């Protein structure tokens, strides 16, 4: 009885509650925190609880068989080890939708690399081509499923960058295969069919799925609305910036490490331009983020991510295969050494590329970028499509690129020797430093808002 | 358990217990803004702990324990006074967080009664009666043995009855 009295008396305190605004504000912050701090070890532990898998995994990881199998292609004796064991072990580290998508994208790229390897050797027969393209299609589809899941879970920026990278991988490799087919007549039919299949895969509608999921995931986050189009939030834009900068850094490193392995100097110079263009785009994206224009930032980061990703892929391909030099081919040579006398069709291509970039359809530009790699005029158009370039100070350079009067002079600026002392290298360095500063400021603001700066340890 | 379920489940924990954790922090600090920060930090740290793959059997009790530790840290940073002697139990400031006038009057009445008790009695009574924890869970939250909590809870009830002029003989 008396206990009830006490209970009723003290229960009156339950009317002390959070206001609706406080409750939802802190809930959103908590949700952001949860999204950016997903569990890692729990899944590891559950995987490690399977002793047989662990023993098998360690056995094969640490044996030469599994390492030797890595460079095999269909038809090699160790190819089954590569596909059935090495890739299963790779999958063990996938503990959430993002890493699952990354893993499937990685396997997709491995199958494509095998296709290229066989095509480059001139030994790609129709059956193998069919088998590999089917496998590529299956893994790309799985990657897309996981990307969609990641997007629905609110990991929007990761999903977006994974999607861009997957499409970029398919498109870039299609171009590389096409190039190989053009130089390797015996296997050209199988290769051309494979190219067509890859292009169709790249044109699938993941874009729509991710966009839809962005809309769903944005409901409970800091939503920025422009007309009827939902775009990235500030936190998501910063995440995408971080990922793109990471990819740019990696691409620069890949390019740097393999600088001397390019048999085709025109390709090397074009990749250098792609890197600088990517850095330009990242730099402009930071400006856009500073101005809370996340839609523009997203478009710029998409382009930057595609360019950086392409540099990595092409660098890797040139490292592995001694692709025929453009300079040895009359037609290609014409493209590689474009000057003022650029043909009207090239101009048209460059213009349409630029238009598509401006229309936020960057992913579809990927296919043409590799063609443009050997086309300095078109790439200069891409450079000129970049907006403000505060840090790089390329405004004057850009206008020079846009000029059709003195292409050779503009190329001299960008064709400086590549080293840590070169201007291009330093430009990229400055952009990456600016990204770091932007992200550290953003993080500290978030932390101070989150904890009012009083309880941080 | 997938990440999505975990996230949903943890947000459900927030939805169910955010008010209680906030109240706890408010009672201990009497400052709305600080209570909000402590409440938020309690949930964040709990999530971080779970994200490391560690098991928590009673999430609500765990969040309260984290909140209690953060409150201690807060006072350590603020001034060097033991938690038991904390005097930041301000009826006005606490009741100010209630918008409805009638509710505010009732809350002030309860708080004034609780103000006449020792800090440790208030802790145990609110954790038990208001937040529904048993002696074992309270022991974990305030770092005391279960038996000690049971004895102190009994005494705290008696003291509150005295304050409210409810006869102990009616028990």
Structure report:
The complex is a heterodimer of chains A (457) and B (171). With 457 residues, chain A is mainly α. Chain A is built from 21 helices and two strands. In chain A, strands 1-2 form a two-stranded antiparallel ribbon. In chain A, helix 12 packs parallel to helix 14. Chain A is globular and about 90 Å long. The C terminus of chain A is likely disordered. Chain B is mainly alpha-helical and 171 residues long. In chain B, helix 1 runs antiparallel to helix 2, helix 1 packs across helix 3 and helix 3 runs parallel beside helix 7. Chain B starts with a helix and ends in an 8-residue tail after the last helix. Chain B has eight helices and no strands. Chain B is globular and about 50 Å long. Chains A and B meet through helix 1, helix 2 and helix 3 of A and helix 1, helix 2, helix 3, helix 5 and helix 6 of B.
List keywords for this structure.
heterodimer, A: 457 residues, mainly alpha, two-stranded antiparallel ribbon, 21 helices, 2 strands, 74% helix, globular, disordered C terminus, B: 171 residues, 8 helices, 0% strand
């Amino acid at each position: 009885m008396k206990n009830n009295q006490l209970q009723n008396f003290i229960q009156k305190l339950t009317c002390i509650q959070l206001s609706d605004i406080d409750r939802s504000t802190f809930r959103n912050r908590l949700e952001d925190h949860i999204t950016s701090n997903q569990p890692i070890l729990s899944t590891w532990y559950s995987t490690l609880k399977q002793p047989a898998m662990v023993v098998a995994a360690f056995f094969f990881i640490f044996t030469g068989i599994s390492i030797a199998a890595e460079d095999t292609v269909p038809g090699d004796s160790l190819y089954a080890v590569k596909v059935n064991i090495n890739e299963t072990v790779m999958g063990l580290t996938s503990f959430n939708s993002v890493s699952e998508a990354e893993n499937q994208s990685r396997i997709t790229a491995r199958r494509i690399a095998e296709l290229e390897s066989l095509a480059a050797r001139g030994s790609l027969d129709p059956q193998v081509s069919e088998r590999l393209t089917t496998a590529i299609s299956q893994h790309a589809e799985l990657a897309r499923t996981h990307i969609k899941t990641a997007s629905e879970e609110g990991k929007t920026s990761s999903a977006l960058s994974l999607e861009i990278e997957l499409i970029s991988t398919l498109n870039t490799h299609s171009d590389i295969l096409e190039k190989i087919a053009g130089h390797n007549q015996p296997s050209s039919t199988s290769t051309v069919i494979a190219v067509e299949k890859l292009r169709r895969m790249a044109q699938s509608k993941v874009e729509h799925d991710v966009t839809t999921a962005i809309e769903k995931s944005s409901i409970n986050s800091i939503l920025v609305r422009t007309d009827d189009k939902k775009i990235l939030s500030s936190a998501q834009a910063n995440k995408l910036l971080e990922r793109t900068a990471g990819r740019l850094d990696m691409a620069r490193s890949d390019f740097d490490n393999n600088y001397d392995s390019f048999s085709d100097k025109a390709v090397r110079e074009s990749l250098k331009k792609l890197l600088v263009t990517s850095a330009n785009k990242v730099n402009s994206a930071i400006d856009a983020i500073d101005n809370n224009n996340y839609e523009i930032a997203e478009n710029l980061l998409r382009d930057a991510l595609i360019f950086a990703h392409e540099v990595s892929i092409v660098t890797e391909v040139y490292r592995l295969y001694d692709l025929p030099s453009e300079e040895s081919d009359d037609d290609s040579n014409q493209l590689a050494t474009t000057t003022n006398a650029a043909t009207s069709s090239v101009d048209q291509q460059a213009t349409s590329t630029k238009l598509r970039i401006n229309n936020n359809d960057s992913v579809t530009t990927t296919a043409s970028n590799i063609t443009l790699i050997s086309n300095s005029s078109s790439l200069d158009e891409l450079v000129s499509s970049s907006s403000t370039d505060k840090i790089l100070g390329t405004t004057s350079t850009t206008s020079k690129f846009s000029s059709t009067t003195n292409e050779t002079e503009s190329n001299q600026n960008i064709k400086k020797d590549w080293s840590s002392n070169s201007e291009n290298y330093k430009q990229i360095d400055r952009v990456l430093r600016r990204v770091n500063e932007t992200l550290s400021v953003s993080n500290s603001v978030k932390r101070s808002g989150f904890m009012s700066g009083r309880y941080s340890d | 358990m997938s990440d999505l379920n975990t996230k949903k489940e943890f947000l459900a924990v927030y939805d169910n217990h955010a008010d209680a954790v906030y109240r706890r922090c408010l009672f201990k600090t009497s400052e709305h803004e600080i209570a909000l920060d402590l409440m938020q930090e309690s949930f964040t740290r709990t999530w971080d702990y779970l994200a490391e793959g560690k098991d928590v059997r009673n999430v609500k009790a765990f969040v309260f324990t984290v909140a209690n530790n953060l409150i201690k840290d807060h006072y350590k940073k603020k001034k060097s006074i033991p938690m038991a002697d904390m005097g930041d139990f301000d009826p006005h400031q606490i009741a100010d967080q209630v918008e409805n006038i009638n509710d505010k009057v009732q809350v002030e009445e309860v708080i004034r009664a609780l103000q006449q008790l020792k800090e440790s009695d208030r802790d145990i009574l609110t954790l038990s009666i208001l937040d529904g924890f048993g002696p074992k869970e309270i022991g974990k939250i305030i770092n005391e043995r279960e038996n000690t909590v049971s004895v102190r809870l009994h005494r705290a009830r008696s003291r509150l009855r005295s304050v409210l002029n409810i006869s102990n003989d009616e028990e």
